[in-house]
Amino acid sequence: MKRLLAILCIVFTPLLAIAQESDWVRKGINIPEVAVYGNRPIKEIGAQQTKFDTIALKENIALSMADVLTFNSAIFVKNYGRATLSTVAFRGTSPSHTQVSWNGMKINNPMLGMADFSMIPSYFIDDASLLHGTSSVNETGGGLGGAVKLATRPANANGFGVQYIQGIGSFKTFDEFLRLTYGDRHWQVSTRAVYSSSPNDYKYRNHDKKVNVYDEDMNIIDQYYPIERNRSGAYRDFHLLQEVYYNTGAGDRIGLNAWYIDSNRELAMLTVDHGDHTDFDNRQRENTFRGVVSWDHLRDSWKLGTKAGYIYTWMAYDYKRDLGNGVMAHMTRSRSRINTIYGQVDSEYYIGEKWLFTANIALHQHLVESRDKSIVLQDGNKGIVGYIKGRPELSGSVSAKWRPTDRFGTSIVLREDMFGKEWTPLIPALFVDGVLSERGNIIAKASLSRNYRFPTLNDLYFLPGGNPDLRSESGWTYDGGVSFAVGKEGIYSLSGSATWFESFIKDWIIWLPTPKGFFSPENIKDVHAYGVELKGNLDIALGQEWQMGANATFSWTPSINCGEPRTPADRSVGKQLPYVPEYSSTITGRLSWRSWSFLYKWCYYSERFTMSSNDLSLTGKLPPYFMSNISLERTVSLKWADLSLKGAVNNLFNEEYLSVLSRPMPGINFEIFIGITPKFN
Amino acid sequence: MRYIATLFLLFASLSCMKWEYGLEEEFDITGEGLFICNEGNFQYGNATLTYYDPETKKVQNEVFYRANAMKLGDVAQSMIIRDGIGWVVVNNSHVVFAIDINTFKEVGRITNLTSPRYIHFVNDEKAYITQIWDNRIFIVNPKRYEVIGYIEVPNMEMETGSTEQMVQYGKYLFVNCWSYQNRILKIDTETDEIVDELVVGIQPTSLVMDCNNKLWTVTDGGYEGSPYGHEAPSLYRIDAETFTIEKQFKFSFGDWPSEVQLNGTKDKIYWLNDDVWEMDVTADRVPVRPFLPYNGTLYYGLTICPRTGDVYIADAIDYVQQGMVYRYSKDKELIDSFYVGIIPGAFCWK
Asked: Do you find a cis peptide bond into B306, omega within 30 degrees of 0?
């Protein structure tokens, strides 16, 4: 405890050092007037949506979107370790049931179907929202669990601006963020860069293995649990984002967004690996470019938006072994290239204030080259195990939204998806909302939809194991809930919502081992997922200089296998899906005083089963997961610049824990950030 | 502020997600028994070892963890017993554990391996360990638990390196090469050199030797779309003395035969191909009817009790729950069934 206090002092004391009495920037939480029910956007009738504010997104430059979602939403983030693959799943579904878009363009990997949220720096995202269940049909198809919408927006700069933040943390972690902006009446230009690196070699006591001590005759005379470092977990990620927006001022906006990623990450060894990390090199590299140009044409009663985009991804996986002479020979050398061309047209047409009609069509054309292995053929020549495939993915929708009175609204969406030459049946979605009480702004919402998800390209074509006979997954889902909002501008605001949901998913695709020694996907499960989502938000001005805010979420998500027994001995029917927590919760508390702000983040996942039969074994335990992080920040406004200094403590209580079996997580760790924003005028 | 502090303390008190230590349990189980290697899920480190007493029908799961208070590792591939010591090969943990077969306690371990698959003893001080993703067979000293050399396989690259099961005839050792391979190697155990090789079909998966010194291997035929080729699998009978193919039994295209095993007297072979099949080692054709027909169970592992002739078949079910082992008499009657660990793949008789 003394050590912890000493370290906390080291992290936070520098904040006091810059506490010069001068022109402090008054930070704190803006407490707006509570929106009255009539102001509900007609576009969002009945939608279950979670929006993230700037505080959550820009809280820490070192955070990925995976971290933001972990502590600010009730969706399940499966994290394989620090700076490793992180996937998200809604309402008891799988990560591939979550559709992810960036500035309108889908960024799910077409080979794998999922997106890695550890590769999305939160500092690159200005708008983020979750569309739960049915609500995703408003934006895209295939989101059996939901959709994550990520976007950038103009910086609203006036003249030149520069912001630079440096983060230095435990395990020799360095995070750097630079943003250059320029803006005038018509133009908004922004360049953002993030560079993160770390050997990531945090220490942990390995409970999964022991080290032997032998005598001269090689008899074991002692054994102990070793204190190890996270072996082969280093990473170096660079992101560059260029944005240019032009606003004619007469209803036309043109935008360009280009995002480049250069990532080089080692894949950390398991706790049960008895190999020497210097003998192996297990590494994944990725270069990705994503670019979108957009044109929005706005008039009083209608809007037309067009987008065109391109994604190029090169991924390399290398697993090498030292042959004993210093030469690292490839055990696995896998390469893949993905080219995606994207186009989208959206239109909206208002008839008075009561009707809104929308139409949308989006095309993603994927061209994938997967080279998984180089082999020697029977005739002695070389061959490649892999596939080259292209697939167009077309998704179109029309909707009619009607709000005859301020108290009631309804909308219907009809969507149709095409993957390759396959078309889904019509995907309908129906939404309603209504005001139950003006007092307390109590609003009820409900929605119902059908949805489909096509197999990914790897599901169909991966060698070995791809299964071209797979059927699309399909599902019905509905939800209903109530929300309220009360408050007084500048004094307090309190809002909350409760939602019940239920989904039935058929033909769930799962990769399973085969007797031939490789994995192959099959449509094997029917899943019934249901549960409750609760959200709450409270902001209070405690006095002239004190403000407090808190967000909380809670989810109960049984996700039950309802398929037929796979064999007579199958005990998985009627059981919770493995690795899907039944309960999860988050709490974020903020306290600000003058130019100081303190943030406390807490999240919880209930015990996750590692077996489909929900049996508990000694070697397959993933106990409940609790995590507490804190940070303290101070901002200083000088004549020539705004300065900020922040200290963050992660895993505050220094828990020894695993998020996934055999993947140790770091104990208590620290990071300090120094930010400077020069003033040019 | 008092409320805030109270709330903070409340959540702090909830922080109790312990990564537990195991407790060492004492075993002393003598007599005959069967070890079952449960592979576990690749990359999840949940391989386990099960012990079954055929006499009492008592099942002990997770015996390695319970005896040693540590995990067996990631993908338990195979096990053999020599002089009261069990050698458990844990593929993706890069280790071979040596355990006392009565107490299940570790007595040593061999490390510095690439991706071990099987171990074979030449003598007390020399054993071979085959690998996947390595074109070398590792030579180890089991007494010192150390790697002492390698046998490099010609015309095999590291990336598609694959050496599997081993059978010894006199001073010669035979090894089947499986993944993207099509041959059986012949190694002189005195010189540790490959002296011959025999091309069979695509991807031979198993290797045993019967009472007549005939080697038996079965190929899986590759898979659809494989650049290495895809063909109908075959069962081969190979004369160990002359190292020539005596007989090829062809299966239908699309069949997946695997797990060739022998009974105790080594005069019958068994294999899986949806059903369980049995054949005399002198037979000229594959039987028309299976020994045990497919009954909705996806068989993954197979062994025959060398003493009673009972047939044990492993059902991996959906590969993410405890698998089931069915025990049949040689008269095809179900004697017992019991749950083991995740993906039971290999057996070892004590």
From this structure: no
